[in-house]
Design a protein that fits this description.
This protein is an alpha+beta fold. Helix content is 32%, strand content 14%. The strands form five sheets. Strands 7-6-5-8-9 form a five-stranded mixed sheet, sandwiched between helices. A two-stranded antiparallel sheet has the order 1-2. Strands 3-4 form a two-stranded antiparallel ribbon.
């Protein structure tokens, strides 16, 4: 029996399963109408004299009981997928694992004290109608880029986002900072505060407790030691939005998505062909020397499937942290919790975790679950399709309205 419950997309026929687990074949009841009738199974139409399906009958999609044909097992594809996982097992994990000092003769090793870990998370408001969030744009000419110690890549005229709230948490989950950022010129360049996503409003961002971006960044820098390590999901975006510099304002950063991402062949068909040619001798067997985790050693290109923070927390911690308004304190806290729980996990455990995340039902993002457009602003790339469709509908409606006049 299936144990996935409502998460399973296959339509199970419980009546066909006996107590002992054997499959029972039942003859469908004949309808009084000799032509055809509609059943309530997905809106499909079945003939009244449809033949009874038995396990010995061939599976096809043309009969009265359409069953999708199973994919033929390809050993070369399976081999390529396995090798990609093995290569990931050999990757360098020193960026997030506990470090040890090994003696010259290799007889002993000493654990090196961990640096202080912190996590920051930034929620942005919209200063444009697009979804680009590379760098920040205040919508008022970006005069902030002329300030002292402002990194070159912090401001971007093509960006449509500006920081609205920043939170900082230490390794024990203590909230060190939770700052509301006031947009320049009292929000003159703000298109939307993206309230359903961020929980921010004009009253909050322009309130008496709000600080300028410069003051907020100064506060974060004052709390962040030079040897501190920033941990978070896609932490490079938060660092870029705040204008922090690794090696200057803090030591380094760790993106926790690198711990849970799944490595796989970039093109499975090409990888399978490479495996086949290696087996037949058309291509040489890869040499064991060199970097065994590289694509050059594998003989085919690979890619990574990254998982969202919500997907990881939902499947590993049974916590749904982003079902509604995003809370930067919660996001930062759970990033550190996942980091400390799995940073020193063994290769086998990480393989199991990654496979589980890969096979788990996809977790919808905010734009997929709620709306990809807020106040005309594209929350994600999906919003562009909605806006294009809306323009076509509006042009059609305007044309109909003009024709009536």
């Amino acid at each position: 029996m299936c144990n996935r419950g409502n998460a399973c997309t296959f339509r199970h026929d419980n009546a066909a399963v006996a107590v002992g687990g054997t499959v029972k074949t039942t003859t469908p009841k004949q309808h009084h109408n000799k032509k055809s009738h509609k059943q309530s199974n997905g809106g499909m139409t079945f003939a009244a004299n449809a033949p009874t399906y038995t396990p010995s009958m061939p599976r096809n999609t043309t009969g009265a009981y359409p069953i999708a044909s199973k994919r033929v097992f390809d050993p070369y594809k399976a081999r390529a997928i396995t090798l990609a996982k093995v290569a990931q097992d050999q990757e360098d994990r020193s960026a997030f694992c506990t470090a040890f000092r090994i003696s010259d003769d290799g007889s002993s090793k000493e654990e090196i004290a961990d640096p202080p870990f912190f996590s920051i998370d930034v929620e942005c408001i919209a200063t444009g109608y697009g979804s680009c969030a590379r760098g920040i744009n205040d919508g008022c000419g970006n005069e902030g880029r002329n300030g002292a110690d402002v990194p070159v890549g912090q401001y971007n005229d093509s960006s449509h986002r500006y920081p609205g709230r920043v939170a900082m948490v230490d390794k024990d989950g203590n909230v060190l900072a939770d700052i509301i950022i006031r947009p320049p010129q009292d929000g003159k360049g703000v298109i939307s505060y993206l309230t359903p996503l961020t929980g921010l409003t004009q009253e909050i961002c322009l309130g008496s407790d709000a600080k300028s971006l410069e003051d907020a960044v100064a506060t974060i820098k004052g709390l962040l030691p030079k040897d501190g390590v920033l941990v978070g999901q896609a932490i490079d975006h938060d660092v870029e939005w705040l204008g922090l510099t690794p090696g200057k304002d803090f030591a380094r950063m760790v993106d926790i998505s690198a711990i849970f991402r799944q490595r796989m062949p970039g093109n499975l068909n090409v990888a399978a062909e490479v495996m086949k040619k290696i087996e037949t001798g058309e291509l040489p067997t890869p040499s064991p020397t060199g970097d065994v985790s590289s694509d050059e050693y594998l003989g085919f290109a690979t890619r990574y499937r990254h998982f969202s923070l919500r997907h990881v927390c939902l499947n590993l911690l049974s916590e749904d942290i982003q079902s509604g308004v995003h809370n930067p304190i919660s996001d930062a806290s759970y990033s550190l919790k996942l980091f400390h729980k799995y940073r020193n996990a063994g290769v086998t455990q990480l393989r199991i975790v990654r496979d589980g995340l890969h096979r788990a039902p996809p977790t919808p993002s905010f734009s997929q679950e709620n709306t990809p457009v807020i106040d005309g602003v594209c929350v994600s790339a999906l919003g562009y399709n909605y806006k294009r469709a809306a323009r076509k509908i509006w042009r059609w409606y305007a044309g109909k309205k003009t024709a009536k006049c």
